[in-house]
Automatic annotation (TrEMBL):
<dbReference type="Pfam" id="PF08448">
    <property type="entry name" value="PAS_4"/>
</dbReference>
<dbReference type="InterPro" id="IPR000700">
    <property type="entry name" value="PAS-assoc_C"/>
</dbReference>
<feature type="domain" description="PAC">
    <location>
        <begin position="325"/>
        <end position="378"/>
    </location>
</feature>
<dbReference type="InterPro" id="IPR018060">
    <property type="entry name" value="HTH_AraC"/>
</dbReference>
<dbReference type="InterPro" id="IPR013656">
    <property type="entry name" value="PAS_4"/>
</dbReference>
<feature type="domain" description="HTH araC/xylS-type">
    <location>
        <begin position="149"/>
        <end position="238"/>
    </location>
</feature>
<dbReference type="InterPro" id="IPR053142">
    <property type="entry name" value="PchR_regulatory_protein"/>
</dbReference>
<dbReference type="InterPro" id="IPR000014">
    <property type="entry name" value="PAS"/>
</dbReference>
<dbReference type="Pfam" id="PF12833">
    <property type="entry name" value="HTH_18"/>
</dbReference>
<protein>
    <submittedName>
        <fullName>PAS domain-containing protein</fullName>
    </submittedName>
</protein>
<dbReference type="InterPro" id="IPR035965">
    <property type="entry name" value="PAS-like_dom_sf"/>
</dbReference>
Amino acid sequence: MSFDLNSNFFEIAFNVTEHTEAMLAYWDKNLICRYANKATADWFGITPDQMVNKSHLSEILGTLFDVQLPYINRVLEGKIQVFDQVIHWYSGKAKNVRVTYHPDYVEAEVKGFYAHMTDISPLNNKPVDDETGIEKLPEFLTQNDQLLENVAKTLNENLFTGFPSITALSKKHFVSESKLKRDFKQSFGRTIFSYYRYLQMEIADRYIREKRCNKNQMAVMLNFSNPSNFSACYHKYLEEKSAGLEPDQPQKQNINHYKTLIEEAPITIAMFNAEMQFIAVSKGWITEYNLQNINIIGKSIYEILPDTKKKCEKLHLHCLKGNIYQCDGLLLKKNNGTRSWLKWNIYPWFSPSGEVGGLCVHTEDISKIKAIEKENERAAKLLKRAATFSKMGTWTRDLLTHTMQWDNVIKSILELPEYFVPDIKALWMLLKQGKSQKLSKKALKDALRYGSPFDIEVDMITAKGNSRRIRIIGYPEFQNNKCKKLSGILLDITPISPFKTTGY
């Protein structure tokens, strides 16, 4: 156990998760619960103590488990999953819920995933399937359209890892190989593999023109068996472009598909042309920026959101040259007059000719996160001041590297300069000979040998020769039956004379 002041950040973050109405949990790759917050009691009628290290996800979800299983499998493959569903709470109330599953990577391997469920009933009343609870598709987007879009999305996800094969695609999307090949070509104007190669060449052409990579490097990145095969594909792609052989109608269909996906996306995203006029916008964007009952398609973002012209126009021009921009915090005034901290992701989309056709802009309101960060900073400052005033410092001793660390409060107590580097010899020199040294050595010996924590009071002599009564608390940390670290706190408990101050 460490008493480093930074641990208070984790305490504050923990308190936030415990007092939110959203359900938060962590499931390992075997679908065993390893963490759950208090909200699980309202959602599923089971407390964290009853879940953690005991419950399988299927036990918690019940009949919903089979419905969610495709999403669970995909998150365990390393893909973020976001979907809406109707869930009946333990109280019996039916809620529209947004579910987010985020993979947990440890050294490039998925060890589990984080689960977040939040009630979005006040935000939408979308129709749902009575049997599955999953949101129904809009009337203008047929089930077959959605299937083909999902196939195209899978191909995009595998551009750098290799073609997944027709068999794998048909199994993944629950469609026969013959139907998949026939419908895909009819919709996109190309065979599945030709479409996949075309997407790869679009990326390659962009990277080569922008001089990010040469042809040999792109061949390796795109998993070609040798550079000559890549060169042949790339040459064919350039010939198609120069001859204008790209099928116009499928390209228009693709743009319409993208627009449909954006409009139905559960995130705040908008698509613009090169003049920064709206082409498509998600319902999340409409809600986020309070644009209900306003026809914004074809209008400039600078007209709809005037504050963006001053703060974002240069960024937009930069990205319209083919650059990607990401920003973790930009304060922007919305239409309702409020100012919010926004996270921005701006990236260009390209026309069939390879020119930048416009931008896609994804924003996320992180005002609450910024508020928590600000509160954490304030809390850290208060804690640091409190530690200084209470004359309590933190220390650690690493048994693997044989190094020690004392914070500046301890150095102030022992009247040492801030640049002083402590070691075990310095500690024994500062400890008063006799009873204090013997007590300290015994406490250290028991901690290292038996893992015993200690809480002792000793006399120490400061670097300036002043006597101090010191309380030292320590906690050992063991690994493979061997102590690897000691950490704890040091407090000055020297009685203060009523006729003199301490000097610090």
